[in-house]
Amino acid sequence: DMAEPIQQLTRNNNPQERQSIPFTLIQRKEKLGDLLYEKRQYGKAKWACIKMKEKQYEQSICLGFMKLMRYICEQNSSGLYLGITVPIVTIVHTNEAHSAMSQAVTVAYYLPEVLQEQPPHPFDSDIIIEEWPATIVYSR
């Protein structure tokens, strides 16, 4: 089921072809010279997002990522490989009291700069294109 997207990604897996999402570094936390995390602010932009709710948190992330990879690798209205942007963002949701994590996660892919104005439509109806306001992200 994932053979085509994986082959497409492998063919297009040159690090120089990965677009880093532009951000402003807010904070960098290190311990003994090792990076623990960065707090970043990303500007307003369009993202392809999918919300998943599997029994295990890890399953939700993996399945969401695989669906996004299909979108990136030609299962979109342009029929083209869209290119990889890094990082792929995972949003962890909490219950209404904000006291525990829920099983639901959102996995999101920043659309490359050239696609921001008119993003290709996904064939998978679970994937939605959202315009996010400026956003704070913790990255490791």
TrEMBL record:
This is HEBP2 protein. InterPro entries: Reg_factor_effector_dom_sf, SOUL_heme-bd. The gene is Hebp2_1. GO terms for molecular function: heme binding. Belongs to the HEBP family.
